[in-house]
Amino acid sequence: MNMVRWIAFGSLMFAAACDDLLGPNSPDAPANLTYQLIPSGSPGSPLGVLLTWDIPRSGRANAFNVYARSNGNGWALRATTTSPSFHDSGTPEQQYYVATRDENGDEIAQSRTVTIDLQANLPAPQGIGSVSLNGAIQLYWNANSVAASAGTFDHYLVYSAAYDATRGVCTSNWLQEGSTVSDGFLVGNLTNGVSTCYAVSAVTHDGHESQWSEARLDTPRPDGHNVMVYARTSRPDSSGFLFADEPAKTFGVVASGLRADLDVYVERHPDGTMWITPARAGVTMALYSSTPVSDLTAVDRAPSTTLVAGAYQAMPGYAYVFRTQKTTGVHFAALRVAYIASDYVVFDWSYQPAVGNPELNQVPVR
After folding, report:
1. Distances in Å between the alpha carbon of 14 and those of 7, 20, 109, 152, 360?
2. pLDDT in tens, 159-196
3. Final residue in a domain of this structure, among 157, 187, 218
4. Is 267 contained in some domain?
5. Taking the model in full, what pTM does it have?
6. How many domains does the structure of the chain reveal?
């Protein structure tokens, strides 16, 4: 009986020794097998997977066999390579391991098995917003993806698509704009007046991509800062302003207060106050808010109502929105007063060249 127990114990020890010689603990085994998914923009459907491992410390490795399986099926040889990496295109298999081959082509050890869970994603970024700029869009969003798992978060991917104004939807041709580790992204070199949709996803260290954020539509527009316009009674030649000078095809032009195509002009009342006044029948305006705004970019949209043809007193820090009729159609604009002197006003301005588009900063779209 004791002999039987000894034989059984010896068999177990022999099996363990063989496992050490042939398995992941062997000096001939590829160590630290890891994977990196390649995001495609479609969560759960990566473009492929990149497997990497360390060359065995024994120095006997001549090549490596890569094996894979899915759904509990048998292992299948996926590739043979002499490098310590393998790129498997398309939807990855569920499990992989790598076996070492010696100079005779015999397998002498194998790595541990890695299992890929395509559902191990972060939550989609929430609260995406944007700021319309001159030839650029500043995107921003909440840090909820990082907060959900700071240890696995790696970076964000930013996508864009053209906007179909006739149907009011983003087109299906989404492209990757870039990546960032911060919760903001500046898109530059844009054409003013052209609307674009944006969305963001979060990616883990091993390449799992989250669902996208909601889409955000924005349209860059020209703007200008620290424009000085005089009162008509002080300098008539510099008392008018055009958000868009159509004959010259330029934006933000200080001009003579006598031009027939002016958008607004500045006048000083007998009590010394300065007023911004629509210069023609095709221009109406409104006070943007009852309190000052910190910057011109705080003006998000021109209202569809409440614009009037009357003048408004210029007050430092306050913003005003405009509806202007041009030969191409209706355009919206804004200005924020920065400083008021005894005979001139200094302001920042923005103008939306997209016809009928009231956005001076945008809203989500479907």
Report:
1. 10, 10, 16, 40, 76
2. 999 999 889 899 999 999 999 999 999 999 999 999 99
3. 218
4. yes
5. 0.84
6. 3
Backbone phi and psi for residue 150, each to the nearest 5 degrees, phi listed first: -65, -30
> Among candidates 141, 187, 143, 129, which has minimal Cα distance to 161?
187
Residue numbers of the domain that contains 293: 223-351
Which structure tokens are listed for 168? 């009011």
Token pair of 355, please? 């016809």
DSSP category for residue 20: H
Which of 76, 93, 115 delimits the end of a domain?
Answer: 115
Determine the residue type at 358: P
263, HSE (Cβ side, Cα atoms, 13 Å): 29
Over the stretch 255-286, which tens digit does the pLDDT of each residue have? Answer: 999 999 999 999 999 999 999 999 999 999 99
First-last CA distance in the chain: 77
Tell me if 356 is assigned to some domain.
no
Answer yes or no: do 207 and 231 share one domain.
no
Place of tokens 């048998």: 74
8 token code pair: 């059984």
Looking only at the bridges linking them, the beta strands covering 319-326 and 312-313 are: unpaired
List, in order, residues 6 or more apart from 194 with CB less than 8 Å away. Answer: 219, 220, 354
CA distance 202 to 9: 52
Tokens of 299: 């003006």
Q: Are residues 235 and 282 in the same domain?
A: yes
The reply to whether 111 falls in a domain is yes
